[in-house]
Amino acid sequence: DAAVLIEGTRIAWVGPAASAPVPHTAPAHLRERTTGGRENGYSPHPRPSDVLSRTNGAAALEREEVAVVDAAGRAVIPGFVDSHTHLVFGGDRADEFAARMAGQPYAAGGIRTTVAATRAAGDDQLRRRLARLVAELHAQGTTTFEIKTGYGLTVHDEARLARLAAEVTSEVTFLGAHVVPAEYADARDEYVDLVAGPMLAACAPHAKWVDVFCETGAFTADESRQVLEAGMARGLVPRVHGNQLGPGEGVRLAVSLGAASVDHCTYLGDDDVAGLAGSDTVATLLPGVEFSTRHPYPDARRLIDAGVTVALASDCNPGTSFTSSMPLMIALGVREMGMTVSEAVWAATAGGAAALRRDDIGRLAPGTRADLVVLDAPSRTHLAYRPGVPLVHAVYKDGARL
Ligand code: NIG
Ligand code: FE
């Protein structure tokens, strides 16, 4: 029995439908029903729960120019905020996945396969794949997403990926330090200098964030620090891939630099958890990776109980998590990581917003962006209760239906 009032691109009011500041019935020509053939089929007691959308400000209210969308008892939640993806790449690694499921372990070096395919792909080819993935995210209720570079690993290719990413999101992350490319295998110091120097300079104009893969097989803590500090000197804010494949220094490094987020957090010591709890760094958990690599899931319960801010994200990438489904992350968070439904939905919305240091998304409250998802379900609980079922009925971004 709730209603949301939208003015232009922002939420103006949220509350019980009965006390909405505009009538929740409107002239017939302004009524826009979203209900389809399945309406109310899931609900024992269907009651109107409305999304009220008004486009012309106060004057429209006086003239009653209010478009009313009757959600017919469906739950309405904030659009998902996917704060960690690698959406710009060429090729795929289905064969590597199949081999892994047959017993091969995952290693960071697999990234080089995607680097080769990405370098070989033209801009338009990458753009078309990216557009398909963005449509896939939107269709599943994601209204804000971050994208990392990291499959180019030359000055030219990293700048190209940053530019393509910036065409579809304002949340672009420079990840030149994803892995040492094959041609620098015997000269890793030179590669780190390239990343922290000319590559960063070429990418920084398109990016907001700088990230490193601080892990055995990728970059050491010292190398990671060099790249992150160079990025910070150029005004980028640090984030870190850490503690994914084993215990390591990623979390400590992230906390010491005041990173916005440290992502993966699969293998944590008590000192890591305590460090995160005493910091503003969000722990972003990416259970699609554990699902696709058969590593143990990160312990969200331990982090939340220690007072750490936890986000859930897809890590959509061709190597370790080729899924863009935030509902799947919620289901895994609840079923495998000790989260309550409320905590998991919060982590996939407000938590993602915190990881991107955004206060205009991730919540339904007056003044925030009108980014919302109408679920084909009477409550958000169904996101975890009905795993694998497409429950997204409608998605609104900045007040407009996608
Ligand atoms: O987040 N951890 C590093 N990067 C990706 C994996 C990328 C790949 O294997 O292509 C991740 O899991
Ligand atoms: Fe990642």
From TrEMBL:
Family membership: Belongs to the metallo-dependent hydrolases superfamily. HutI family.
Protein role: Catalyzes the hydrolytic cleavage of the carbon-nitrogen bond in imidazolone-5-propanoate to yield N-formimidoyl-L-glutamate. It is the third step in the universal histidine degradation pathway.
List the Gene Ontology MF annotations in alphabetical order: imidazolonepropionase activity
Q: Which UniProt keywords apply?
A: Cytoplasm, Histidine metabolism, Hydrolase, Iron, Metal-binding, Zinc
The protein's matches in HAMAP family, at most eight in alphabetical order, are given as: HutI
Q: In which pathway does it act?
A: Amino-acid degradation; L-histidine degradation into L-glutamate; N-formimidoyl-L-glutamate from L-histidine: step 3/3
The record's subcellular location field reads: Cytoplasm
Write out the residues that bind 4-imidazolone-5-propanoate. 93, 151, 178, 244, 320
Catalysed reaction per UniProt?
4-imidazolone-5-propanoate + H2O = N-formimidoyl-L-glutamate
Which residues take part in binding Fe(3+)? 84, 86, 241, 315
According to the UniProt record, where is the region Disordered?
33-53
Note whether S-adenosyl-L-methionine occurs among the keywords: no
Q: Does the keyword Iron apply?
A: yes
Cofactor note text: Binds 1 zinc or iron ion per subunit.
This chain's source organism reads: Microbacterium horticulturae
What is this enzyme's EC? 3.5.2.7
Residue ranges occupied by any Amidohydrolase-related domain in the UniProt entry:
76-399
**Gene designation per UniProt:** hutI
Q: Where does Zn(2+) bind?
A: 84, 86, 241, 315
What is its cofactor? Answer: Zn(2+); Fe(3+)
Q: Which InterPro entries match?
A: Amidohydro-rel, HutI, Metal-dep_hydrolase_composite, Metal_Hydrolase
According to UniProt, the name of this protein is Imidazolonepropionase
Please tell me where N-formimidoyl-L-glutamate binds in this chain: 151, 317, 319
Write one Pfam family the protein is assigned to: Amidohydro_1
